[in-house]
Design goal:
134 residues, mainly alpha, Uncharacterised_YhcU
Length: 134
Amino acid sequence: MKIVHASTEEQEKHIEELIQQMYHEIFPIYFSDKMMEELETEFSFKLHEAPNYHGTLKEAFQVMSSLQALIALFENVHKSEKHIEKYKDMYERNMDTLKRYGFKLPLTFEKFLASSTKENMFSRYLKPANKWII
């Protein structure tokens, strides 16, 4: 018999928030709305759809740390060209962790590098700067 500790409700919520951050703050910088639609419909990057994620404490920490590392990587990858190989290894390691739990995201590190960052762009996927309509 093996005893495992279940993840907390707050951890599950934080994982969902990190996934939403990826979809609404990170991916729209790199990809068009059309590509974002394909990602949403064809690939599972949602916690409740991950078949190998059972909600244990260890799994929750691994998923959270992988998502946080990927977010940090995507926010900084274009700032330092000399660390590209290090960033690629970090990307692969964290994506392997997410794939182990059943998250499907068919984006290679090179796809992010090839995509130009689009500052001041409009996308329906980007989180609005405010909620006021002028």
